[in-house]
Amino acid sequence: MTQLLHSKYIRVLSVLLVAQSVLFYTASHGDATPLAAPLMAFPHTLGGYQLAQEGVVDAETLNILKADDTLTRWYVNPAVGGANLFIAFFQTQRTGQSPHSPKNCLPGSGWQTTDGGSGTMDAQVPGGGTIHINHYLVSRGDEESLVLYWYQSHGRVIADEFAAKFYLIADSIRKHRSDTALVRVVVPVAHGQESRAEITAADFVKASYPTIKAYLPQ
């Protein structure tokens, strides 16, 4: 009986996924939504943080990522610390482009998730609100970093990859849009001071989020 129920569940799930795919590719035809301004115009000052270094996304990564625009920068606040901000924006996901989860990309660079360091968190943002985002620790040799990331679509912050897929289908049908962005913040953990990195990361998200939200299509 258990096998029968499992088999029926798999068949129903497969039918639903096929139906969703058909609706997505039909409803989102010609749905590309551009940025109002390129990410290179992103401000050099975010709250108390100043641009310290303009990064470059290498050609191989760009070819794999297939994003329409990217940003990678180091910002520093002398009183709090530094953080790396990475944004990948996709005008449409209809033709196969979609964000790659950092949890899948970082291991390819030698970074591994630290046991017990993976989960989600609520980050405070200006105006008294909170956003629910992914939070985990990674290590490579003696190096350790704190990684925060989320998906942002039409003013909506999404942590869960499955939820992001659900909203993708819903928005492509209702709004004829499938644009999205991956936002990632990385803070080095110096001398094992994880709590210090946590403070810096949370503070940087609070300082940068209003600008990130303003730059991405609502």
> In the residues, how many domains can be counted?
1
Shape: globular
- Nearest-angstrom radius of gyration? 19 Å
User: In DSSP terms, counting alpha (H) and pi (I) runs of 4 or more, how many helices?
Assistant: 5
Going by helix content, strand content and strand pairing, the class is: alpha+beta
Order of helices and strands: HEEHEEHEEEEHEH
Profile the largest sheet: 9 strands, antiparallel
Give the N-terminus to C-terminus distance in angstroms. 48 Å
Mean pLDDT figure: 85
Strand content: 25-35%
Oligomer: single chain
The tally of beta strands, per DSSP, is 9
Q: In percent, how helical is the residue content?
A: 25-40%
Which regions are unreliable across 5 or more consecutive residues at pLDDT < 50?
none
What this model shows, in words?
It is a single chain. The protein is α+β, with helices and mostly antiparallel strands and 218 residues long. The protein is built from 5 helices and 9 strands; from the N terminus they run αββαββαββββαβα. Strands 1, 2, 3, 4, 5, 6, 7, 8 and 9 form a 9-stranded antiparallel sheet that branches. A hairpin with a 3-residue loop joins β5 and β6. The model has no long low-confidence stretch (mean pLDDT 85).
